[in-house]
Design brief:
The chain is an alpha+beta fold. It has one helix and six strands; from the N terminus they run E-E-E-E-E-E-H. The strands form two sheets. Strands 1, 4, 5 and 6 form a four-stranded antiparallel beta sheet that branches. The protein has a two-stranded antiparallel ribbon with strand order 2-3. The protein binds zinc ion (ZN).
Length: 88
């Protein structure tokens, strides 16, 4: 059996609220996901490159409130990161 029980890395509780969406409020009525970006450093006149954005999700402990952020699709981010490295 590979049933993984998530536990809080701070207090050890198993009361974990998984996959909470993290949003950034741009204006009072406009919101966007909170993202991490890669590729923004290479943008230039000669080599315009749009940064690639990857949304974050949160895992929150229902006992102590400790919150971890993680990338929703790490496989896709890793692949994108390797492609950027190869272009140098
Ligand atoms: Zn906790």
């Amino acid at each position: 059996m590979s049933t993984e029980t998530l536990t809080c890395s701070r207090c050890g509780s198993d009361r974990i609220i998984d996959d909470a969406k993290v949003e950034d409020r741009i204006t009072a009525d406009r919101r966007a996901s909170l993202d991490v970006m890669i590729g923004y450093r290479k943008a230039s006149m000669l080599q315009p490159e749009k940064p690639q954005r990857f949304p974050l999700a949160a895992r929150i402990c229902g006992s102590c409130g400790y919150t971890e952020l993680y990338v929703v699709d790490p496989d896709r981010m890793w692949s994108a990161s390797k492609k950027l490295t190869r272009k140098v």
